[in-house]
Amino acid sequence: MLRSLLAAAVLAVAFAGCGGLNSADDETLGWSAQKIYGEAKDAMSSRDWPKAIKYLEKLEARYPYGRFAQQAQLEVAYCYWKEGERASAVAAVDRFIKLHPNHANADYAWYLKGMITFNETLGVLWWLTTPDISDRDPRGAREAFNAFKEVVTRFPESKYADDAAARMRYIINALAQYEVHVARYYMKRGAYLAAANRAQFAIKTYQTAPAVEEAVYVLVRAYDALGMNALRDDATRVMVANFPGSKFLSGKEIRPDAPWWRIWDPNW
């Protein structure tokens, strides 16, 4: 019994010593909220994201109330994103949005969330180079679209609204192209009904996207392969009426010669 008490006492002293050392090594002891925030901003300017994250998290823990803490909650999300820790970035920005839905920087918070999820799949182009794309799920692109939509609809006067709208248009085009590539995949494997369904989905869901032209062409081919001549002829009439100069009418699939998706600065 006595031996157990002595062991517990030794452990308590050891942990107390460790705590003392940690406190002594904390350079931020005695710093004001403004001082910690200033150091965090300096670290961000130097692109030292781990250091900035450390300061911002200390700021919120030590001074949980006030404008500096709120700003720290938002800027730590940006730092996590730039550090490549997407999950932590999304969690941080979601927390800010939940705690401060009417904050003056709520538009930026939604825009930042869109950027985090958007750049994760930049441009959702990874699926265009994957042999088997039928099992890919573009949830990241849809999540980004919804975040950008919040900016455009709730904050139409925001300085981020125009860029958010441009990225929404891009995502729509990319999602439509995804559906067409899946339809192509099914065509190559003889799954003509599945190909027709994916082409129809692209046409109905993304009516203004450039990829709709090829979606109609795939639909014509799928109906032809299925022996559904009446539907094939209907789809052909739609193709000729809406895309009279389409290169797909020649029977050749046309691919772009260069990436069409790089419409902004990727280093934002």
Oligomer: single chain
Q: Work out the strand percent.
A: under 5%
How many beta strands in the DSSP annotation? 0
**Series of secondary-structure elements, N-terminal to C-terminal:** HHHHHHHHHHH
Helical content, roughly?
Answer: 55-70%
If helices are DSSP runs of H or I spanning 4 or more residues, what is the number of helices? 11
Q: End-to-end span in angstroms? A: 64 Å
Rg, alpha carbons: 27 Å
By secondary-structure content and strand pairing, the structural class works out as: mainly alpha
- Mean pLDDT, all residues: 82
Low-confidence stretches: 4-21, 123-127, 131-136, 256-268
Structural features, described:
The chain is mostly helical and 268 residues long. The protein has eleven helices and no strands. The chain has helices at 2-25, 33-45, 49-62, 67-82, 86-99, 106-120, 139-154, 161-188, 192-205, 212-226, 229-242. Helix 4 packs antiparallel against helix 5 (86-99). The radius of gyration is 27 Å and the shape is elongated. It starts with a helix and ends in a 26-residue tail after the last helix. The model is unreliable at 4-21, 123-127, 131-136 and 256-268 (pLDDT under 50).
Outline the fold blueprint.
Blueprint: H1 2-25, H2 33-45, H3 49-62, H4 67-82, H5 86-99, H6 106-120, H7 139-154, H8 161-188, H9 192-205, H10 212-226, H11 229-242
